[in-house]
Design brief:
With 187 residues, the protein is an all-alpha fold. 62% of the residues lie in helices and 0% in strands.
Length: 187
């Protein structure tokens, strides 16, 4: 992991900025915001994109969290993996499914829709786009334009957030277990 490149704002400074910009105050403890709010407009834009995908996306929360976990794993993003492990677990995603995201393609319990979505995630991170065959598979299971945009937006936004966190060296908070459940990290 890269050492922190930007100092964390104090909790008080972050809370004040959250109040000023209308971000829920409970987010002020997250190191993500303690760094990103040093550039408040960017912090607000990230918050708004993430919130929209968390609350208004047509992609169901289980699939969204599995995609985020895959992104965290592929990017070697401790912050993303650790935070979304907790969120996914609280949302009812089974630990076995979360662990299977490390190498999803070697597990045969995934549905065709899940496999298409996970392939789209892997391809986007590897090449920057989704191949036509994988796009067609996604379109079969996520048939509306809105659903397809939500698939691409979920992959793109969380990949961007993951890369920003990694590049800035944003540390996982002391109270959050890094690389749950077993501390295993990507090679």
């Amino acid at each position: 992991m890269i050492e922190p490149r930007i100092d964390l704002l104090s909790l008080e400074e972050t809370a004040e900025l959250h109040k000023e910009f209308g971000i829920p105050p409970e987010k002020a403890v997250a190191n993500l915001y303690r760094v990103l709010m040093r550039q408040p407009k960017f912090g607000v834009l990230i918050n708004d994109m993430v919130e929209m995908l968390l609350t208004e996306s047509s992609l169901n929360p289980r699939l969204r969290e599995l995609v985020i976990m895959r992104i965290g794993w592929l990017n070697k993003g401790a912050y993303e993996w650790s935070h979304h492990w907790r969120l996914a677990s609280q949302g009812g995603v089974k630990e076995s499914d979360l662990l299977a995201m490390r190498d999803w393609d070697s597990h045969d319990h995934w549905s065709p829709a899940e496999r298409a979505l996970f392939a789209a995630t892997d391809e986007t991170l590897a090449t920057g786009t989704i191949s036509q065959g994988t796009w067609d598979a996604c379109a079969e299971h996520f048939p509306t334009e809105r659903e397809l945009i939500d698939v691409v937006a979920t992959i793109g936004v969380w990949n961007m957030v993951s890369k920003v966190l990694i590049t800035l060296g944003v540390p996982v908070e002391d109270m959050v277990e890094s690389w749950p459940p077993d501390g295993k990290t990507p090679a």
